[in-house]
């Protein structure tokens, strides 16, 4: 029985790899951490960032470069032997960029940050804790450009049958989060890939993160905070677009419409009519989306340990 999710492997993106000359260290133990840098834009001192990241002693640094080759790629790749640039040839949304970076990484754990992050503190004992506890992702405590704590913990709840996500400041060790704020965190590479990563078909980043969060929790994985893991953001994080658009419709079918029964999940056909009436699309489009989601749920039916309702209803219990 093949229950491997089809999220990542069906998302080919053309890119060129520049740099990354490997330094052999036969006498030392293999390092457990790779770093993936997402680029938000802006004129930040890249050499200063890579100098700082090198002090974390990662096995490699992978910088995801959107369309258009930066002028400093060659000089920086020559300066830092363990730095690789992935030059994208086609557009890729943020979740897909995270997928690519984590796939390319060679370490067990992958730190995903942005080019405007600074003051990164990631104690190595976090990796041992993640390995021992089977944690998929550890999210940091984040400060904004004014030094204020960011409400980076995402807690789901139903209000009058409507799903809401409440953002709170991490206040105690191990607080659960539905998804990583702004994609930043330390990911267990194997667990991330086995869960399918972020779904590129969801162009809206908010619903993309919601889809990832609910999926991994429904599949029994853990995303939690560590108060010793900290970073700052030098620019303002763009506001989330929570419009119930096309991405929301896919999220709704793959998550909120799924029902868990006995030992597996199912997307019952009885959910089709309510979905169609609320989607605002044509009957043909609604049926195509529903059928695709139904096939996906069936393929991965035994990966589920609960449904979205259970994840949300039990959230307060997890926080205590």
Written account of the structure:
With 320 residues, the chain is an alpha/beta fold. The chain has two domains: 15-233, Alpha-Beta Complex (Spore Coat Polysaccharide Biosynthesis Protein SpsA, Chain A); 246-319, no CATH class. Helix content is 32%, strand content 24%. The protein has helices at residues 46-54, 73-79, 94-104, 125-133, 189-194, 205-218, 246-256, 272-279, 283-299, 308-313, 315-319; strands spanning 15-19, 33-38, 60-65, 83-88, 109-114, 117-121, 137-143, 153-159, 162-168, 185-188, 223-233, 259-261, 264-266. Strands 1-4-3-2-5-10-7-11-6 form a nine-stranded mixed beta sheet, with helices on both faces. It has a two-stranded antiparallel sheet with strand order 8-9. A two-stranded antiparallel ribbon has the order 12-13. Helix 7 crosses helix 9 and helix 8 (272-279) packs across helix 9 (283-299). The chain is globular and about 60 Å long. The two termini are 37 Å apart.
Chain-wise SSE layout:
Elements: E1 15-19, E2 33-38, H1 46-54, E3 60-65, H2 73-79, E4 83-88, H3 94-104, E5 109-114, E6 117-121, H4 125-133, E7 137-143, E8 153-159, E9 162-168, E10 185-188, H5 189-194, H6 205-218, E11 223-233, H7 246-256, E12 259-261, E13 264-266, H8 272-279, H9 283-299, H10 308-313, H11 315-319
Parallel strand pairs: 2-3, 2-5, 3-4, 7-11
Antiparallel strand pairs: 1-4, 5-10, 6-11, 7-10, 8-9, 12-13
